[in-house]
Amino acid sequence: MATPAQWLAGSRPRTLPAAVAPVLAGTGVAAYVDGVVWWKALLALVVSLALQVAVNYANDYSDGVRGTDADRVGPMRLVGSGAAAAGSVKRAAFLAFGVAGIAGLALAATTAWWLVAVGVVCVVAAWFYTGGSKPYGYLGLGEVMVFVFFGLVAVVGTTYVQTESWEWPALYAAVGVGALACAILVANNLRDIPTDTVAGKRTLAVRLGEPRTRGFFALLVLAAAVAVVAVAVATTWWALLGLGFLLPAGRAVSTVTGGATGPALIPVLQQVGVAELLWAALVALGLLLGG
Fold it and tell me: What is the C-alpha radius of gyration for the chain, rounded to an integer number of angstroms?
């Protein structure tokens, strides 16, 4: 039976900034446009965090039963390491999905019922990333999912439930946050190219190969920087505070483009996670100051 510490490690806490960042960015835009609805922002945060934990446990379960995690480099996997039974990890994933669903229903009931359909699509996408007979994460489409759901949907959705209106700055912010969320996955998959190749997991990194994957990582960080400027042009130049994300992101780019492999890439995940959180926090701060 896995210990509480192992369950916590299995939830992959280093990925949680990717769940907090879109809510911060979306709330910053809402604050600039129409003011913050704090209780809706908190519910959106619960949804985002619960979905992140759910997809982490779901991936642990699906990759574990397939044997993909048998020789994995990096944070522990509950099923792959034998620390927890596959069924227990699957139940933990569905419990987290349930928490996200309850918070999401509360938002839909007080905003618009069509948001329920968005929530269902999010859960389906999270499960079939590595679940099912033909997981799209094994086909090189993982980055698309991350960009769409932890970028576009999460940021624009957070703004919408508070303003109940479409806002272009939210889209620009979503591109920046989504690009960095993708960069986390790209670094993770770059590290796992050898084991994923053996396991038949055709991630985008496996398909591109190491050199082009490293270049793609740098391009994503550049896209996030351009997105800061786009937000500033559409709102206030105070949003340029967001460029402070380049401090940790620059170190990550240096490591990745410098040819690091295997365990040497693990710190990059944390650096990009911090960069994404910093991007959102500083942009939100700028929007508050300039609003």
Answer: 18
Report residue 251 as tokens.
């170190």
Task: Read off the pTM.
Answer: 0.91
The average confidence (pLDDT) of the chain is 92
How far apart are alpha carbons 187 and 165 in whole angstroms?
Answer: 35
Residue 113 CA: distances (Å) to CA of 80, 119, 167, 260: 39, 10, 20, 47
CA distance 286 to 277: 14
* Residues in the chain where the model's pLDDT stays below 50: none
pLDDT in tens, 142-164: 899 999 999 999 999 999 999 99
Dig out the tokens for 279 from the structure.
């991007």
| Tokens 């960095």 belong to residue | 180
**CA distance linking residue 274 with residue 205, whole number of Å:** 22
Q: Token pair for residue 118?
A: 């968005």
